[in-house]
Amino acid sequence: MFRVTRRYWFAASHRLHAAPLAAEENRRIFGKCNNPFGHGHNYVIEVSARGPLDAATGRAVDTALLDGLVARQVLAPFGHRNLNADVEAFARTVPTSENLAAEICRRLKDNWAATFPGDWPRLEKIRIAETPRNIFEIEAHEIE
Amino acid sequence: MLITRRVEFSASHVCRNPRLSDEENRKLFGPAANPHGHGHNYVVEVSLRGEPHPVTGMVLDLKELKEILNRLVVEPYDHRFLNYEVPPFDHIVPTAENIARDIWSRLSPRLADGSGKLHSVRVYETPDLYVDYFGDETCSA
């Protein structure tokens, strides 16, 4: 059994602001991440899939197929966007990297079978580095 | 507890299955099937699982692991054309997956028991693509 991990990145802006909370409360919780005009990151995404070896190709994951899926579901909709303003999922949900990891995982999981119709490979986990020091990880089974 | 040692080697390869036609190989592997091959700076991370020895405080002396990795992996792989010079890649496509499995099979007799047991082999083909192999665990399909 193999785990294959592919790394991608995109640049996007966001603002951490929870609408139900007062301005003062938002500032206290999110600090400078709550600055009104937002700020940006180079997000580095690692996508891991698990599977057995395909005897003919010697590979466990067709990375070209994975690249296409990630490009359609993640890089195109999120790259060079304002996550709060441009991404429907963050219209009412704070675009923390926790929520971003869950949204990316959900998008890949929902579209996985169309790209990889067999039993294998399976999506295992998503890892997001918001900055080189802040890293978030979610396993696919955590998303319904 | 896991301990990990990293080594690097540079090698060339071509991703081509001799049982398939040129066209099928090109379709499967893209530019990686270009006939004269290409190369990578491979990075290998080998992790052992074990408990620290009560006296030395070490799972396995990492100098010893370094020596094993140099002898069993770096020496045979480094600055070689894998398909032509490093069996079993004369008949197995040298994908990162197969390289990870071959490294596992080279190391596991030496690290199957004792204070540090082989846990995983990670092979970076590029900084953006790596493979983890955990041995012949069965698929929980």
**End-to-end gap of chain A:** 24 Å
Elements of chain A, N to C (H/E): EHEHEHHEE
Beta-strand segment tally of chain B: 5
For the largest interface, the chains and their residue counts are: A-B, 20 and 28 residues
Distance between the termini of chain B: 28 Å
Structural description of this entry:
The complex is a heterodimer of chains A (144) and B (141). Chain A has helices at 23-30, 63-78, 83-86, 97-115, and strands at residues 2-14, 39-51, 81-82, 122-131, 134-139. Chain A is of the alpha+beta class and 144 residues long. Chain A has one domain (2-41, 62-142): 6-pyruvoyl tetrahydropterin synthase/QueD (Tetrahydropterin Synthase, Chain A, 2-Layer Sandwich), CATH 3.30.479. The model of chain A has no long low-confidence stretch (mean pLDDT 95). Chain B is of the alpha+beta class. Chain B has a single domain (2-133), classed as 6-pyruvoyl tetrahydropterin synthase/QueD (Tetrahydropterin Synthase, Chain A). In chain B, 31% of the residues lie in helices and 29% in strands. Chain B contains four helices and five strands, in the order E-H-E-H-E-H-H-E-E. Chain B has helices at residues 22-29, 62-77, 82-85, 96-111; strands spanning 2-13, 38-49, 80-81, 117-126, 129-133. In chain B, strands 3-1-2-4-5 form a five-stranded mixed beta sheet. In chain B, strand 4 and strand 5 form a beta hairpin. The radius of gyration of chain B is 17 Å and the shape is elongated. The two termini of chain B are 28 Å apart. The model of chain B has no long low-confidence stretch (mean pLDDT 92). At the A-B interface, strand 1 of A face helix 4 and strand 5 of B. Strand 1 of chain A pairs antiparallel with strand 5 of chain B.
